[in-house]
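[Automated response] Your request has been received and processed.

Submitted sequence:
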Amino acid sequence: MIVETCATKICPQFSTCIHDPHTRQARCLCKEGWQMTDDHENHINGIFKSICKPKQCNEYYNCDTNANCLINENTQKYECICKPG
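Generated structure:
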């Protein structure tokens, strides 16, 4: 069995490499507010690479009825933005 370390593991943007002492393998975990998903837009011969995408509002933020859930272009995260008025 090959032991993979964080020194050789390439993790996607918005993730951190964690070494699991039980499996002796390195794995990528998305940072808070992000979730691991397959990148269906960018694949090679049907093999998808994993990426971290911001969690949708209904999974991470529960916006009030007086707010809309929008992605912040600067942080690339979903935010609750108050409706006018």
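Summary generated for your ticket: Residues 63 and 80 are 5 Å apart (CA to CA). Strands lie at 15-20, 25-30, 34-44, 47-54, 67-71, 78-82.
If you did not submit this request, please reply to this message.
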